[in-house]
Specification:
The complex is a heterodimer. In chain A, about 35% of the residues lie in helices and about 15% in strands. By secondary structure, chain A is α/β, with parallel strands linked by helices. Chain A has one domain: TIM Barrel (Alpha-Beta Barrel). Chain A has a nine-stranded mixed sheet, covered by helices on one side. In chain A, strand 7, helix 11 and strand 8 form a beta-alpha-beta unit. Chain A is globular and about 50 Å long. Chain B has one domain. In chain B, about 20% of the residues lie in helices and about 30% in strands. Chain B has a three-stranded antiparallel sheet, with no helix packed on it. Classes of the chains: A alpha/beta, B alpha+beta. At the A-B interface, strand 1 and helix 6 of A face strand 2 and strand 3 of B.
């Protein structure tokens, strides 16, 4: 997890076989062209990303945090690709500015068994607008909570590790929209801590390049099995393609766990296509099928989401997963 | 369905721990942001619940 590459970007294998320090500028330029971001090269991100010398994760995270902060001037961290200048107060669809706030930081045991106890750091704000979001208030409002104080958070995380926490998890809202702060947090954590990136898998290629090698586990949601449900329930276009792209990348670059929150009335339209795609495209990946949906936030806007998942629905979903041979984990 | 939010103040840093639970009419309880302390409480209330017992780990410090 210490040395990182960007060799897995879509259609990119730019740095495979590059000797340490050799041809960095050329490779950086190539990378910038491939990701379609001249600004990326100008800001030096590609050069920093393709540095192959064995540096610590904390060192690389600090470098990338600096680059990520500069990239707020033309924010394209998520697939909405807004291009707003968050440094001067412009806001894209997530409404986030340059400041990052947290609404929760605590030890938890409700995630996957192999990850718990985890010290969970929840950043305010998100680029999706899921009406059923269980943390809708702070997830839709990047100004909720308190400003991130990296050293205090890192101290709490270290204390949790000493007390038996197995992992440290950065989540949201959606942490991708807060890459500078997320990377600053990583930079303040021990290199040997097992880090989990809990994400909606709606990030951009730029975001993935900055995240490469930073987290041991990507815990990624695949919420909707079709774009119509994604648009209606979360106001996000082109959802399925973007998530698939992120999952395929994450599977190549770290350990991946895919999560699906089973929604009432969405077994056939959402879970089934998700399960079938996972079975065909990521057959060995760990999958956590969660049936604990509850009608939170603005779920009542949608008639089918005004209840919990029924027993027969849950049984159908598990049966489908088993028939497809998915690697279900608790 | 009744929604409960439990909050425990921690000194001296002032941060709080939060778990949320939803009690369903059939007696099932759904929990979000389950903390070790709250998992311990639920485990005491129903030691036979495998969903909870698997989350109450022995090596966890009571300080978590």
């Amino acid at each position: 997890m210490i040395c990182s590459t960007i060799s897995g970007l879509p259609g990119v294998n730019a740095f495979k076989g590059t000797a340490p320090g050799f041809g960095l500028r050329r490779e950086a330029k190539r990378h910038a062209a491939l990701v379609g971001a001249d600004e990326v090269f100008k800001s030096g991100v590609a050069a920093a990303l393709c540095h192959r010398s064995p540096k610590s994760r904390a060192f690389l995270a600090r470098e990338r945090a600096r680059i990520a902060r500069a990239m707020l001037a033309d924010c394209r961290f998520c697939a909405h690709d807004c291009g707003v200048n968050r440094l001067v107060g412009e806001a894209g669809l997530c409404h986030a500015g340059a400041e990052t706030r947290i609404f929760m930081a605590q030890a938890e045991v409700s995630d996957e068994l192999e990850l718990i106890p985890t010290f969970a750091i929840a950043l305010s704000g998100c680029d999706l607008r899921c009406d059923f979001c269980i943390t809708g208030g702070p997830s839709w409002n990047p100004r909720a909570g308190e400003p991130v104080r990296v050293e205090i958070l890192a101290g709490q995380a270290r204390a949790a590790l000493a007390d038996g926490a197995r992992t440290i998890m950065i989540l949201g809202g959606e942490p991708t929209i807060h890459l500078p702060a997320a990377l600053e947090i990583v930079a303040a954590l021990p290199d040997d801590a097992k880090l989990v990136w809990k994400t909606n898998a709606h990030g951009s290629a730029q975001a993935r390049a900055l995240l490469d090698g930073m987290f041991d586990v990507w815990l990624a949601d695949f919420k909707f099995g079709n774009d119509a449900c994604a648009q209606r329930l979360a106001k996000v276009p082109d959802y399925v393609r973007v998530v698939r792209e992120n999952l395929l990348w994450a599977n190549e670059h770290s350990e991946l766990i895919v999560r699906h929150l089973l929604m009432p009335g969405h077994v056939e339209c959402c879970w089934q296509p998700v399960a079938e795609w996972l079975a065909s495209s990521l057959p060995a990946v760990k999958v956590n099928l969660r049936s604990g949906f509850w009608p939170a936030w603005q779920a009542a806007r949608h008639a089918e989401l005004r209840r919990t998942v029924s027993g027969p629905e849950s049984a159908r979903a598990v049966d489908l997963a088993q028939r497809l041979g998915l690697n279900l984990i608790p | 369905m009744k929604k409960h939010r439990t909050q425990k103040k921690c000194e001296p840093s002032g941060e709080s721990q939060v778990s949320e639970l939803l009690v369903l009419p059939d007696g099932r309880i759904l929990v979000h942001n389950l903390t070790p302390a709250f998992a311990g409480l639920l485990h005491e209330l129903n030691p036979d619940d495998e969903q909870i017992s698997s989350r109450v780990t022995r090596h966890m410090s009571p300080r978590l």
